[in-house]
Amino acid sequence: MTSARSFTHALAARFAAGAADTALLCPDGEGGAAARTYAELDTRAGAVAAELRRRGRAGEPVLVSMDGGPHTVAALLGCLYAGAVAVPVPPPDLSRAAAERTAAIAAETDATVALTESAHAPELSRRLAAAGHSSVVCLAVDRLPGRGGGWQPPERSGADTALIQYTSGTTAGPRGVLVTHTNLMATMESLRSALGTDRTSRIGGWLPLHHDLGLIGQLLHPLWLGATAVLMPQRLFSTAPLSWLREVSRHGVTVTAAPTPPTPAASPMSPPTLSRISTSARWTSPSTPPNRCPP
């Protein structure tokens, strides 16, 4: 993997090698899950890339404001496929503070395109216009037509910027970090070494994809490995931590991650309740080494 010219080239190799494998699972919290193969993700990402290339967005920042399901993954990959610079921001239906954060990022990056879904496009357009960014075009990823013809990775080098990751802004204003293709590939190797991950891994959790650990650890890392990413709804943690743990068990997640402490609301669970959840997932957090979740 380290011989790839860019992170996008590395992903293209994995996608081609495992086209029929399950790349993505998006549980609904009720026992079901939307699944996508690598070939299906490739097709949808290609549709996004075709539109971005048509709009001349190669090398330019593109906001990604979505909920975290399959369309969000297609949008993020589509930016990489097009050679654009993905800028993940909160979905438009969150708090007023999240909307202000998105507006500030739009101003700082001077982005002219935002990727979202048809259910959110009107509200995102309204909020951006209210903040003085009416020129930003909001594209509904779920309405883009399928792509035609073959796709080739864009000519990007390791030094090129792959995405701009903004800090949480909990102690100061959010700051954008330019993440290059070389940065991403080095991070992938470090994660594989630290966590012992491979193509058989199932990696996932509830963290949103505008969060660096959610984006890089729970989505891009498993796709880089050719493994399966399991992206759970954030509400599973915020409203029912036990449901989140059930999803880890139900979908065979082998590596999961969360900020420290990972489950403050889950600590009062009784032994009989925990005994009904079978999990051998490996846990990690930004500030602690990997640990195996107690069975």
Describe this structure in words.
The chain is of the alpha/beta class and 295 residues long. It has helices spanning 7-17, 38-54, 70-82, 96-109, 121-130, 181-195, 212-225, 235-238, 241-250, 271-275; strands at residues 22-27, 33-37, 61-65, 85-89, 113-116, 137-140, 161-166, 176-180, 202-205, 228-231, 255-257, 282-285, 288-292. Helix 6 crosses helix 7 (212-225). It is globular and about 45 Å long.
Q: What is the secondary structure topology, with strand pairs?
A:
Elements: H1 7-17, E1 22-27, E2 33-37, H2 38-54, E3 61-65, H3 70-82, E4 85-89, H4 96-109, E5 113-116, H5 121-130, E6 137-140, E7 161-166, E8 176-180, H6 181-195, E9 202-205, H7 212-225, E10 228-231, H8 235-238, H9 241-250, E11 255-257, H10 271-275, E12 282-285, E13 288-292
Parallel strand pairs: 1-10, 3-4, 3-5, 5-6, 9-10, 9-11, 11-12
Antiparallel strand pairs: 1-2, 7-8, 12-13
Helix pairs in contact: 2-3, 6-7
